Amino acid sequence: MPQQKDLAKNSFAIYFNQHKWLYFMIIPGAIYFILFKYAPMFGLVMAFQQYSPFKGILGSKFVGFLHFKTFFTGSDFWMLLRNTLWLSFLSIIFYFPAPIILALLLNEMKNQIFKRTIQTLIYVPHFISWVIVASITYTLFNTTDGAVNQALQILSGKVVNFLGLPEYFRPMIIGQQMWKETGYGTIIYLAALSGIDAELYEAARVDGAGRWRMMWYITLPALKPTIVIMLILRVGGILSTGYEQIFLMRNALNVSVAEVFDTYVYMRGLVNAQYSYSTAAGLFKSLVSMILVLTANWTAKKAGETGIY
After folding, report:
1. Does residue 137 register a pLDDT over 90?
2. Which residues, 6 or more positions from 175, have their beta carbon under 8 angstroms from its beta carbon?
3. DSSP letter for each residue of 229-298
4. First to last CA, the chain
5. Which residues on neighbouring strands pair with residue 50, listed in sequence order?
6. Which pTM does this prediction carry?
7. Which of 45, 182, 242, 278 is the residue whose CA sits 20 to 30 A from 173?
8. What percent of the chain has pLDDT over 90?
9. Phi then psi for 111, rounded to 5 degrees?
10. Could you write out the DSSP letters of every residue in 192-244?
11. 6 alpha carbon, distance to own chain's centre
């Protein structure tokens, strides 16, 4: 046994010496995660305390699961869960397939100059901040001088309050996501498509297969592992709808459908200074997200697909 341990140590030392520069490259990323991801997790203790900024985490009184009980039994919980799940469901149905479809269409383009021009143009919205996107949306859809409402007034004589009516909030959020992120989301799928052996397409052409058959029997099966991994990650983020976009688009008129977990934690924690209560709500969201990722990964592996790990 001691000889085996010494042999294992020597093997690791040799391996480390051969790849030491790779280990050194890990250091900045490891420091980032330790400082900004793991160290702040100590603050989760506040969820079980009646936290006071004057007493600090170490001096505040422990109250157990009181804040969780208040959160789960309150009327806000079901409203938040309903609004968050609706947005996530619509995002999975409409936004998730959009980059896949666009990547397949780009992959069919034969003119490389035209293809690269289109790719560049559809990547641009990703680099526009949500503040600018919200401003553009307001400029287009406001009831006073918005271009959309001016056109509606000319055609029908009516004006629609797209920004205030609750029934238009969810379609507008999904539309913004698709416009801003669909193009950039094609990158990972185009990378997967570039790894497909060109000889498979040549053999299919020899057998008389058209573009649709090659897409169905070659391209989509090659994309399936990537799609599964991205879907697992998306399922894990079902309760994370994004704070900035929702916060910028919510107002007093549509708050009944616009309030989600992310904005609720901000409003209760930072605006109303209910630190322990908001920490409990955020911890619940994070735990559910972790369970969903693990469950989706387990299901994918049971179905014979490649999971995240």
Report:
1. yes
2. none
3. HHHHHHHHTTT---HHHHHHH--TTTHHHH--HHHHHHIIIIIS--HHHHHHHHHHHHHHHHHHHHHHHH
4. 31
5. 61
6. 0.82
7. 278
8. 26
9. -80, 105
10. HHHTS-HHHHHHHHHTT--HHHHIIIIIHHHHHHHHHHHHHHHHHTTT---HH
11. 46
